[in-house]
Every structure is written in C-alpha cells, then in structure tokens.
Design brief:
The structure holds two protein chains of two kinds.
Chain A: E1 10-21, E2 24-36, E3 41-45, H1 52-59, E4 68-75, E5 78-79, H2 85-91, E6 96-99, H3 103-106, H4 113-122, H5 129-142, H6 148-151, H7 161-172, E7 179-183, H8 191-208, E8 211-216, H9 219-225, E9 228-233, E10 236-242, H10 243-248, H11 253-260, H12 300-304, E11 310-311, E12 318-319, H13 333-336
Parallel strand pairs in A: 3-8, 3-9, 6-7, 7-8
Antiparallel strand pairs in A: 1-2, 1-4, 4-5, 9-10, 10-12, 11-12
Helix pairs in contact in A: 4-5, 4-7, 5-7, 7-8
Chain B: E1 3-17, E2 25-40, E3 44-48, H1 55-62, E4 70-75, E5 78-79, H2 85-92, E6 95-98, H3 112-122, H4 131-142, H5 159-171, E7 177-181, H6 189-206, E8 209-214, H7 217-223, E9 226-231, E10 234-240, H8 241-246, H9 251-259, H10 265-270, H11 297-301, H12 305-313
The chains are: A alpha/beta, B alpha/beta.
C-alpha cells in the first residue's frame, strides 16, 4: 500500500468459505469482493443459501471451527482473516459490530438488558462500570426505548420483538463502531415495527457516521436503505452497482427475475415472472454459470464457462452474465422471462 | 349475488390459564372480536394484518378447526357453528385449507400420491382400478408438477413444490372455497411468484373462491379482489382492492401501507413514512374504545382533547362515513400513501 492512497474502511477481496461435510465440500462463498467507505450503506441481497450471511460471519470470525476461509478482509488496511481471538477482539464489537436477525437468541435471557449493554462498553476498558451503565441508558434512549432508565432494568423477555431489536442496535453501537453489519435485522418483525427499526438504524448511522452492511432478502428494504447493492447467487456476487442503477437497469437475468417476481404495493394487475427451478446445491456445482439451468437467456457458452463480473454500460456496475449487453436500457421482466406457472424442474435428489 | 361464505359477528376467545394443579382461567385472549365478512363465488378476499391480529384464528374458526365462542358462519347456505362432526365432514369437501409451512403440513412418511389421494379415499372418491391414480396424476399436472413424481416423498421436493403439493391436496375434492393461510410467506420471492400465478390460474379455471390470509400487503394487493385489514381481533377497514390501496381511510391502514418499503429506490426517497408508536397491545386486555388509539398517529398528534375522548369512550363502528367503504375510525379520512 502506497502512502499516498488511504486504505478503504473495509476491503474484502476474493473471500471464499468452504464447509467440509460428510457428503463433500460445500462451497458456501465463492469469491466475494467489495470495499466500503465511511458512512456508506452496502445492501447485500440474495435468497436463502446464497452465501450472504456466511460471507459476513467470516469477517467477524464467527464461523464454526471446521470452516475453511481464504481470501482477504482488511479493516483500515489490517487483515482480519486468520487473526487469533485476542487480536480479533480489538476490532470485533468495537470497530466492526453486528446485529443479528433474532434478538431473542442474541440477548442473554438471565441478565438485565442495561447490564448487558453496559458490559459491552465496560469490556472495552475505557469507562468504569458505573459510567458504562449510564452510557447504556443513553444508548437505549438513542434507539428510542421509552423510559430508558427504568427499562434498562428489564430482562429481555419483558421486551417486545421490536424493543429487543432496538436493544441489540444499542449494544452494537455501544463502542461507536465504524462498521455496522446488520444481518436480516427486520426479518422477524412486523412491517410497522420494521419501519421503526429501519428509521432507528438510519438515525444511529447518521449520528455516528458508521458505514453499514445490510444483509437482507427484501428488495424493498435494500431500496430504502442502501447506496450500493450486491446481489448474490450460489455463493458469489452476480451483480453490483449503485442502488438506482441496479433497480432500473439490471444487467443480470437473475436480478431481472427477482425484481419481476415481486408483487408490487404500488401497482396491480401485472403478471409475475417466476424463476423456474431452484438454486443449485453448493455441494456439486456444475460447470458454467450457476444460474444457467434457470435462465431464460441460456446459451451453450453459459453451460461451460462461468461468467466473470463484466463491467457494464454504467460506471461501477458489474454483472456476471456473458450476455449482459442484450439487456439494454430499462429492462422489463416479462420480456425476458416467460410468464409461467408450470414448474418443470426435477425434484431435489 | 348471494355470498358463498357469510360470517357474522364471529368471536373467538381463548382462555389464559394459570399454572398449578387446579388451573384457573385468569383471563381471555380476545383473538377474534366480532368479525363479519362475506365472500362471493369466484372471489378472493384478502385478510391482512400484523402478527397477533387474529387473522389466522379467524381462518381456523371459519373452517371449524377450532370452535367459535359465538357468532355465525354460513357456508353455501349451511350454518357451520352448530354442525355435528359427520355433517361437517361433508361440508369439508367444499371448504379446504392450505397452511403456511409446506414442511410441517405434509406427512414426511407418505409418498405424494398418498398425500394427495388421502382426501379422495376419506370421502369415498378413490374409485376402482386406476381412477384414483389417474385423479392424483391429473391434480399434479394441475399444480404444475410432474405426475411421474407421484411416488416420491415430500423431502425430495423444494419448498415451492411442496406448497404446490399442499394445494393439490386441498383441490382433490374440488372445493368451492380455499382458505389460504400465509401460503407463500415461507418461500423465497422467485418461488413465491410461481405459486401466486398458479393460484390465479386455478381460480380462473376452476371458479374457486379464496380467503387469502397474509401479512404481506404487496402479495395481498396482487391477488385480492377485496381486502379486509385486521387489527387486534377486529376488521378496521374493508373495501375493494382499489379502495384500500388507493383510498385508505383508517389511520392503521395508512400506517401499514406507508411502512412497506417499495423495491424502487427513487420512489422510496420521495415517500413519507408514518411511524407508529410502540407495539401491538395485548389481546387479553385491549384498550377501551378504539383498539388502535394507543398507537394511532392521528390520535397522538392531530386530534383535540375533546375529539380524543370519543376514541377512548366509544368503539368506532365499521361503517362508511363518506369515504366510500367501511372504516372503523371516528375520524376516517381518505389519504393516499402508496
């Protein structure tokens, strides 16, 4: 690294994760690269099993012992992968913090909420226990918990789902991290509570200037929160670009299909374009593009050669499709995908 | 047009029992508190609301899977709440349900042919020779699955395919009304779209009526002719799809619609969000007067104290106050939010 170029806040390159199992090696993440600047929100979308959560857990050293991780993930130029727990703890929770989907399993049921947040602050070694607990109450107030002083003395089961998720956000923000990784933070919540939590995330992010990685399957949440978007499929990014670009001018058939299969709150009567078949097993990925078996634009080349991320007609917009240029201008899903109900795919074996 | 299903003032309360040897009833969960609705032949009624609003209990009570506390359910001219088991079994041919979880609602030890054929056998329609097997093959084709896979087991199918099996089973007896309880919420979006298209096609082909219960407002808009919005055991607003989504008049409907993020970044940035306070109150002890008032943005910031006292003391009836469709708000007013 030359002195003239400042290292990005977070830089991930060619991250790979494998899980050896009895049936063979599951290649859960197959080359994820991105960089994140301060204050930026990166949305990572994908369906179940696309590797979106695993790729973030790997950064935090939270994968099970058997996982094989390669590639690089640098926080301000310092490598995170392969660090010993003691060295990782300098960064984990303090510089890079995480919010999980299910706050009930992430909070300790036998400790008071305020004490748990206080402990996270006190453990950083800057504040005394008393001051840490005071700071915990301030944080609970910041994330919008009414009567934070008395609610800090409650146990997690006395909180509703939305309040628990607020408490998790407070805990993640406890040491003023530079990067916040939110893994499906609103998936378990009702839509009105989701709106509250997204607003809270936006508020704390605005006040602290932290960068955020927002992992979700909800294309609406990503459109609402993100600056840039990464779409993942079968363990790797298949499209990446600014949020406006990607939603208006998708250049990967999978993204087109995802957007077209979504019923819209702001329109009615349109026919949906389902993607036939199912995502491939990550155990024995066939050669070629992993989306090819489900792709309406598939050619011979797609079956033999996995497409790299091509730079498309837009700046900083890349797509893993050999034939992205055929998706010109604003793409209409019904022109790419056949509107069908019949699922010809073979059952899983 | 006469209604295929007519529900009047349906109430379902569950007892809250204390622990100990002799359990006492400590209170009642008012899951469904006086719901009236109708569904015409060939029509889809969407029932939408957040968790705990009573929408699933409503579906199960209509199906008589759990007995109603009071009220009436008339299906195809027959009152169901007073029906004996054997008579109810006959009605079930015409009234079927599809559950949310395609993993839990299919017996893992039965091949698909037996799962789909079971209703035919129970109701004596299996027939002789190949007719039962042919019926199963036809049903599989109908829901877009390969009939050659009839001898496979549920675990050999993906989530979307399993939900199609659940639908095929529900269709086996050629019912008139399907109660669909969150039929697509466990599925990834690309799979969900196929099941929604299938439901639309089947309705067109077989003239089915649907009661479509879901929390996803976009899905409900897509599939429904009419929509009922539920909050804490009551319908707070009901009307045609265009009325509910284009001209919402209840503060809860407006808040619900404004909370859904659109998959369109440019429109998202222009939208104003109505943020509700707090969480849904306990259905054991719902607020007096209007049940929504504790979270209502209009109650909190627009009404005078005199106006508020009406919300506290008097429960608003579900009626048209000039907005064109019934709404259970004393101060209902139409305001587009999508």
């Amino acid at each position: 690294m030359t002195a003239s170029r400042r290292a990005p806040l977070l830089e991930v390159s060619d991250l790979q994760v494998e899980f050896p199992t009895e049936d063979g090696v599951v290649h859960a993440v197959r080359g994820v690269s991105y960089s994140l600047e301060a204050g930026e929100v990166l949305g990572i979308v994908g369906e179940s099993g696309s590797g979106k959560s695993v790729s973030s857990l790997a950064l935090m050293g939270l994968l099970p012992r058997g996982a094989r991780i390669s590639g690089s993930a640098k926080y301000r130029g310092d490598e995170l992968l392969g660090l010993e727990a003691r060295d990782l703890n300098v960064i984990r929770g303090k510089k890079v913090a995480m919010i999980f989907q299910d706050p009930m399993t992430s909070l300790n049921p036998v400790h008071r909420v305020g004490a748990q947040i206080g402990e996270a602050i006190w453990a950083a070694g800057v504040l005394s226990k008393g001051d840490a607990n005071k700071r915990a109450v301030e944080l609970l107030d910041l994330v919008g918990i009414p009567q934070a002083g008395s609610r800090a003395r409650s146990y997690p089961h006395e909180f509703s789902g939305g309040m628990r998720q607020r408490a998790m956000i407070a805990m993640a923000m406890a040491n003023d991290p530079d990067v916040l990784i939110a893994d499906e933070p609103t998936t378990a919540l009702d839509v009105t509570v989701q709106a509250q939590i997204l607003e809270t995330l936006r508020k704390v992010q605005g006040e602290t200037g932290a960068a955020m990685i927002l992992i979700t399957h909800d294309l609406g949440v990503v459109a609402n929160m993100s600056d840039r978007v990464m779409v993942m499929y079968a363990g790797r990014p298949v499209e990446y670009g600014t949020v406006d670009d990607l939603y208006e001018r998708p250049r990967m058939p999978y993204t087109v299909g995802l957007l077209g299969s979504l019923p819209r709150l702001d329109a009615e009567g349109e026919r949906l374009t389902p993607i036939t078949g199912s995502p491939p097993s990550l155990l024995n990925l066939p050669a070629g593009c992993p989306f090819a078996p489900r792709c309406p634009m598939v050619r011979d080349r797609c079956l033999s050669e996995e497409p790299p991320l091509y730079l498309t007609d837009e700046v900083e917009h890349v797509a893993a499709c050999h034939f992205w240029m055929e998706l010109g201008g604003e793409v209409i899903a019904t022109e790419v995908f056949e509107v069908t109900t019949v699922d010809d795919a073979e059952p899983l074996s | 047009m006469t209604a295929l299903l007519e529900v009047t003032d349906l109430v379902k309360h569950f007892p809250v029992r204390g622990g100990g040897v002799v359990s006492r009833t400590l209170g009642w969960v008012q899951a469904v508190s006086g719901v009236s609705l109708t569904i015409a032949a060939g029509e889809t009624l969407g029932v939408v609301g957040e968790s705990g609003c009573g929408k699933s209990t409503l579906g199960r009570t209509i199906m008589q899977l759990t007995p109603a506390t009071s009220g009436s359910v008339v299906f195809d001219g027959v009152e169901l709440t007073s029906l004996k088991r054997s008579a109810m079994r006959k009605v079930r041919r015409d009234l079927q349900i599809v559950f949310q979880d395609p993993y839990a609602s299919l017996d893992p030890r039965m091949p698909v042919s037996a799962i789909i054929g079971e209703p035919l056998r129970i109701h004596g329609r299996w027939g002789s020779g190949r007719s039962g097997k042919d019926a199963v093959a036809e049903l599989l084709r109908l829901v877009g699955l390969n009939p050659e896979h009839a001898n496979r087991y549920p675990h050999e199918f993906s989530g979307g395919q399993r939900q199609r099996i659940g639908i095929a089973r529900a269709l086996a007896l050629e019912p008139k009304l399907l109660v669909l309880d969150e039929p697509v919420s466990a599925l990834d979006v690309s799979i969900q779209a196929g099941v929604l298209n299938l439901l639309e096609d089947l309705q067109g082909r077989l003239g089915l009526s649907y009661m479509f219960i879901a929390h996803d407002l976009s899905v409900v808009r897509h599939i429904s002719d009419r929509v009922a919005v539920m909050y804490l055991g009551k319908i707070v607003e009901t009307g045609s799809r265009a009325e509910i989504y284009g001209h919402p008049s209840h503060p809860y409907t407006r808040a619900l619609l404004s909370a859904v993020p659109l998959p369109d970044p440019k429109r998202e940035r222009l939208r104003k969000r109505i943020l509700l306070q707090g969480d849904i109150p306990s259905p054991v002890d719902p607020p007096s007067g209007c049940r929504f008032r504790t979270r209502c943005q209009v109650f909190a910031s627009e009404l005078t104290d005199a106006q508020r006292s009406l919300c506290v003391s008097e429960e608003p009836a579900l009626e048209d106050r000039g907005q064109g469709h019934p709404s259970a708000c004393h101060y209902a007013r139409v305001e587009a939010v999508v």
